[in-house]
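Thread: Newbie trying to understand structure tokens

Hi all, I'm a second-year student working on a class project, and my supervisor (Dr. K.) asked me to get a predicted structure for one chain before our next meeting. I've only ever worked with sequences, so writing a 3D structure as a token string is new to me. If someone could post the tokens and maybe explain what I'm looking at, I'd be very grateful. Here's the chain:
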Amino acid sequence: MQGTNIERDQLRCGIFLPPFHPNDEDPLLCFERDFELMQHLDKLGFHEAWIGEHHSGGYETYGSPELFIATAAERTKHIRLGTGVISLPYHHPLMVADRMVQLDIQTRGRAMFGFGPGLLVSDAMMLGIDADKQRERMAESLNIIMRLLAGETITHKSDWFELKEARLHLKSFTRPRPHIAVTSTITPNGAQLAGHHDLGMLCVAAAAPAGYNVLDTNWRIANEIAATHGRKMDPSSLRLMAPIHIAETREQAVAEVQWGFEKYLHYSYSLRPEGPVAIGLPTAITMDNIEELHATGKACIGTPDDALAMIERFWQKTGGFGAILILAHDWANFTNTKKSLEMFARYVMPKFAGRNEWREDSLTWIRGNREEFAKVSKGAAMKMVNQFLESENKKKGEAAE
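---
Reply by user tm_fold:
Sure, no problem. This is what the structure looks like when written as tokens:
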């Protein structure tokens, strides 16, 4: 892939929260735990978090990521919060645009907006939407939303919504518009929309073999389409998602994810016969298959060095990207999940970005000259001692006279 002109120290870190929550836990406590997670990430210096929208299955529990973001923004100070994603075929585009502007103002620009066609077929079925129309409807809705955000007055009749002299009555807080991204998996659909509308890309299948294989292809497609409009894609808006959990050792990390992985498997097999394999995730995480998981990049369950290797693999594949998003999976308990995220912030990101290079250089310089510096320090101290002794002796002599 051609160079993207982005430096390693520009890489941001975040999470992608579908969310995955076991069906045997109280939903209220799951919600509160997610708010606490946002506060934890905020303190650790994570840059962003994306929250999903789902309406069936009972496992991915947020029907409105905007409502979650409104509360989370009140409990945090710095982290940016995005809808990951609003399923556009499920909503009237004017309503989506209105909510976007309101949330952008309420958060004073910390809200971001991810869009997609809708993931769960069961959600679309309940709404009477044919699965083969979802991408088409997403593109139609996105076009309307972009025009509304640009200040247009629109009259438009579709087979699923209608607008009559529709316009927004508030300008967004973020000018010229809030940050917007679209999902990009395996098909070029997301890349085409990103290139056409100058949007970010959420590569939610980056760790799956099929998704990984087309990362460079889809980024190239987005750039080619952007070029036809006289623009260049911004590599800082390219985000890659992957399942990551780290601990002091691989053995410990593998043991920790056993806490909730079986419950996730039950949900995954409830969605599709192939279970997690359909989206590139493993059917088991053990010391017997951990090497294969890391080699293929399907997941990183290991040490900070393993996480560094995964990010490096992504970096080489894409030529550089803007943010690594950790899939929030609830495989480990909350205590170990928070510890994993803390280790990622403390050891993985600084190492990849080279944030401690100058510190290391300074320490190496001091260590290499320690004998000389110690000698100078000791000499300076002895000089002061000798001066003091000379002064005291002089005082004693004068007193004796």
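A couple of things are worth pointing out once you decode it. The two ends are 89 Å apart (CA to CA). The chain has a mean pLDDT of 95. Feel free to ask follow-ups in this thread.
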